Amino acid sequence: MDLKKYIRDVPDFPKKGILFKDITPLLQSPKAFPDAIEQMYERAKGKRVDYVVSMEARGFIFGAPLAIRLGAGFVPIRKPGKLPYRVVEESYMKEYGEDKLCMHEDAIKPGSRVLIVDDLLATGGTVEAACRLVERMGGEVVGTLFLIELTFLKGRERLAGYDVEALIKF
After folding, report:
1. Residue 95 designated active-site
2. Does the 39-169 domain belong in CATH 3.40.50.2020?
3. Residues 62-95: pLDDT tens digits?
């Protein structure tokens, strides 16, 4: 299935000059959404994944059902103050300053094989921070997988050394 036709362009969102790639038409389709999960599964099934890790919020939409399909655990990464238990944090730079990601301190067992899943690869900063979190906890990042990659932002270059795959490229 050509998933690209289910991605809607929204000009000037969230600010003027940005062409936002809206995934909600894909999510609303009872055929395209499950097909996207199945395509992700086909790319990940040989990696022997123990955990799928995803960042809030849209990453959860793809990571959780993929974890079920792979027979793996699901680990959410969130912003500070959103997880109820003790956390480890990782800081990273965004366009307009520093941000942080958090994961429960017991979320990844040392030696675990981890697949990081998100809806979109842009500059790669968020995913790079997620990889560092997983590795600090003793996990092995066996791949990163995205619905969409914005190739012109060169996030793949920032993730050099990791296996990077995307179903749709713009």
Report:
1. yes
2. yes
3. 999 999 999 999 999 999 999 999 999 999 987 6
| Candidates 43, 58, 78, 158; catalytic one | 58
56 a catalytic residue: no
Among 8, 38, 90, 95, the active-site one is 95
Per-residue pLDDT, 94: 78
The 3 state secondary structure assigned to the chain is CCHHHHCEEEECCCCCCCEEEECHHHHHCCCHHHHHHHHHHHHHHHHCCCEEEEECCHHHHHHHHHHHHHCCEEEEEECCCCCCCCEEEEEEEECCEEEEEEEECCCCCCCCEEEEEEEEECCCHHHHHHHHHHHHCCCEEEEEEEEEECHHHCHHHHCCCCCEEEEEEC
What pTM value is reported for the model? 0.95
- Residues of the chain with pLDDT below 70 are 95
Domain range list for the chain: 39-169
